[in-house]
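[Automated response] Your request has been received and processed.

Submitted sequence:
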Amino acid sequence: MPALSPTMSTGNITTWRSHLLTGRRQPRPTAGTDVYDIGGKSASRSLKVDGIKGASDRTPSNISIYIAQYPLEGVPRHPLFIRVWPSAMAHAMVIVRVADKVVSYDFLPRAPTSPKTALHMLTHWGRAPGEFRRRELSSVPHLRCWPVVVLEHDQASLDDLDAVIDEVNKTFGTELRLLVRDCRHYAISVVECLAGEEYSELVARRLQVEMF
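Generated structure:
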């Protein structure tokens, strides 16, 4: 996989992984919704992690991870545009639900709707200054949003989650490079750190990023 962040198994990420207990695929939703199982299967399976499996004083929490694709910034967010927007031109983001909180994480150009940004990318081989974005959502979206995995974690909070994402951001780099280090690669990196390589590969296939 091209230009993912270097070694990320230190600090807050190691702590996060040490408290992972299990992981399972999210079940298929009821018919008529736009949320689908990213792997095409509804069977549960174990998440292989080298962590602490002993008893905990805290009640395990379920952490739901999703991947979403939406039209680029500046395009109207009408449901019709969301449904028909081509995946190859869509913006990718990771959405995580912890308890009653839903948060999205993504990577995008610093001024995504500015003509100067488009000109800079055209004249600099798809490069532009990037920034990381975190937003709290009222709920998990139903359009173009696919469940990846439900993690069982014995020490999970929004602060813990943000600490892991901060580690990802520190190593990922702030230069956006189309097809090399863009929103899709960032989403894969986030999922890899939160859930492991097994699930990041599912996301890579969903986002049509070649793994090598």
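Summary generated for your ticket: The two ends are 5 Å apart (CA to CA). Residues 1-9, 27-58 have pLDDT under 50 and may be disordered.
If you did not submit this request, please reply to this message.
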